[in-house]
Design brief:
The chain has 473 residues and is of the alpha/beta class. 30% of the residues lie in helices and 16% in strands.
């Protein structure tokens, strides 16, 4: 285990898958939707099991892509077999670096659905090679990675970027925007965000004193490519197949995974930027290795552009329910939430969502593209005639990316927009990891009360051979 003293010293030295159906089902769905004008986008998919399999399905159904390459570190795994059989002609790789270095002339864009810790090097390589990139959320794992990704995107304006929080192209995005511009949503001072159902990612022992011991390596696994820039860990089943989400070294926990689906419109349309305080209010099962079983985190944002200061309180954990307004009513379930290899998101007493407290009105919302409702119902009825017309989305999130690749739309969740939201989550993760109250200066982008927290903004130095990814070009 790395102590804080060792960490700071090292820092100083280094500045089940979705049912796609049969082959004919997917191809027929794509043929029914004619491709728009312009050539199809040639796409290489990085990560083709579990969420990656879903992304392949969603992109193919647009009828706008040619699948030319597949990349997965565990290409022989059971989770890759559906996509492999669907596109036997696609070139195969187990290392994304080889994909770019040997095959970049054959594709226009990449779609990456991989563990959080490997998002950054894939994105940076795509930008350097001039390849459009659709990157699953969260955008990255450290605050510094987000800084570099946003700057690299600015240096490569011809490259289209899109982060995979698909609610940014669904009803809630356009409703929130219209209601904010019409003054229906105004003077928001507090937001409660919650993820409390039983789709949890681990049931490990919180008294852990070391990382898991090595398990036998699956045949064909490219473990070096899976680790990427992360420090060396022996292969363990407790990291693979979605379990990586719970480890600080690899994932962003429930906050990084679900925050992007719950708080994206709140953050963008309220112009929240970066907080000045992040405080861990509650942690169940806190330890130095993986995320707590339950967390409550307070984010405090200052006044900006005529809007008052705003507090966001995040609750996760099945036994850590937030306080609800008396008139809250039932918790709606969003059936559009994708399944994972851990199963569907079950209907719960309180489904993932948010409560937004404005000066005059309170709003209740869910996750992903779920629309807001006004509390109480009497106020909702009284204001009904004043609600603006909400435009329909011209394209879903996948079409939006492809149309942007063709120069016909702009992406709605590019790195320059999602990057700051991702940084908010990175700050929250640091508070979780340290179980502390942290004060942050959004201008200097430094904590003012904790040196170890500042070291965590960058994280551990990249593993030998991966340093170049952290150099802007």
């Amino acid at each position: 285990m790395t102590t804080r003293r060792q960490f700071l010293k090292e820092m100083s030295l280094a500045a089940g898958a979705l049912a796609l159906g049969s082959v004919s089902d997917v191809i027929n769905a794509a043929e029914k939707k004619a491709a728009p004008k312009g050539d199809k986008v040639k796409v290489a998919f990085i990560g083709i099991g579990n969420r990656g399999e879903q992304d392949v399905d969603d992109f193919v159904r647009t009828g706008m892509v040619d699948v030319v390459a597949l990349c997965d570190v565990d290409m022989d795994g059971r989770h890759t077999q559906k996509v492999r059989s669907l596109f036997p002609q696609a070139k195969r790789f187990t290392d994304f670096r080889e994909l770019f270095e040997k095959y970049s002339s054959h594709f226009d864009a990449v779609v990456a659905a991989v563990p959080d810790h490997i998002h950054f090097p894939i994105a940076m390589m795509a930008l350097d090679y001039g390849k459009h990139i659709y990157l699953e959320k969260p955008m990255c794992r450290t605050f510094h990675e987000a800084e570099l990704m946003m700057e690299s995107a600015r240096r490569h304006p011809q490259v289209v970027t899109q982060v995979g929080n698909q609610g940014h192209s669904e009803a809630n995005y356009f409703q929130f925007k219209a209601w904010k511009e019409a003054g229906i949503i105004r003077d928001v001072t507090a937001v409660t965000a919650h993820m409390n159902n039983s789709r949890r990612w681990h049931k490990f022992d919180a008294n852990i004193t070391r990382f898991p011991t090595a398990d036998p390596m699956p045949q064909g696994m490219n473990w070096d490519a899976w680790l990427g820039a992360a420090q060396w860990h022996d292969y363990s089943e407790k990291y693979h197949q979605g379990e990586w989400r719970c480890w600080y070294d690899f994932g962003m926990g429930a906050l990084g995974d679900w925050g992007a689906h719950i708080l994206d419109t709140v953050h963008e349309f309220l112009d929240l930027g970066l907080p000045y305080e992040v405080t861990m209010k509650y942690a169940k099962g806190h330890n130095d290795f993986f995320y707590p079983f339950s967390s409550t985190i307070l984010f405090r944002f200052g006044a900006r552009q005529g809007m008052p200061p705003c507090d966001i309180t995040w609750y996760d954990g099945i036994d850590n329910l937030p306080p609800l307004p008396d008139n809250y009513g039932q918790s709606e379930y969003n059936p559009d939430i994708p399944a994972t290899n851990q199963g569907n998101t079950p209907v719960a007493e309180l489904n993932p969502g948010k409560i937004i407290y404005g000066s005059d009105l309170t709003f209740k919302g869910g996750s992903h593209g779920s629309t807001l409702s006004i509390l109480p119902s009497a106020k909702a009825e009284a204001i009904k005639s004043k609600l603006p017309e909400v435009p329909k989305s011209p394209s879903n999130h996948f079409e939006n990316f492809l149309l942007a690749c063709q120069g016909r739309e702009k992406t709605r969740s590019p790195f320059e927009i999602n990057g700051v939201l991702s940084q908010v989550f990175c700050l929250g993760v640091i508070a979780q990891r340290l179980n502390a109250q942290l004060f942050f200066d959004p201008r200097t982008k430094q904590f003012t009360n904790n040196a170890f927290a500042n070291a965590l903004l960058t994280g551990m130095p990249p593993r030998k051979g991966w340093e170049d990814f952290y150099q802007l070009k």
